[in-house]
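Researcher: I'd like a structural prediction for the single chain below. Treat it as a standalone chain; there are no partners to consider.
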Amino acid sequence: MPFPVVAARRVARLVSGAGIALLLAVSSACSEDDDPATTRSDTQHNAADVAFAQTMIPHHAQAMTMVDLLQGRRVDPAVETLGEKIRDAQGQEIETLSDWLVEWDEEVPETMRDHSHAGHDGADPSEVMEQMGADHDDMPGMMSAQDFKSLEEADDAAFQDRWLALMIEHHEGALEMAETEREEGRFTPAVELAGQVVASQNEEIETMQELIDP
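Model: Treating it as a single chain, here is the predicted structure.
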């Protein structure tokens, strides 16, 4: 009776094929789960987390230096309030990021504020940027020495809109860096901090766009 035998063989092949497909699916799922970039951890970190911390620290420090330039300028009170908000939030984030790097035994990067406070008191930000060279030129949204010089030399009538435009560009660079961390980071607190950066800086960009004179 050949028919039952043939049918049995077909069933066996179907079962075997289904088993292989199942194994491939499980293997694929396991491979995805093992990817450090997609597996979050409260204790483990990866290279993306380190890069996020080491780039965001000088990026935030530059934003705080930009806020310093508001002192003595005739600007809208709303701009002054925004500046203090930026200083407070980003100062706290720098402390958090620095603590993580120390915990991971990674280098905490030097910033332009470190230069300003180490033998360069009284130096203009444009001079500090020139002294630091091109170390941070590849970071998105970072101001150049010439950008700072244009702010320092601007009269009060032009200063506010120029400052807002440069801070918007600076924030957009931070968003790019934070989105990379959200996609590639492993350390859950760092990924969550990146999410906070995205939320707060998007909100601040909207505020600044409303403050720029039409």
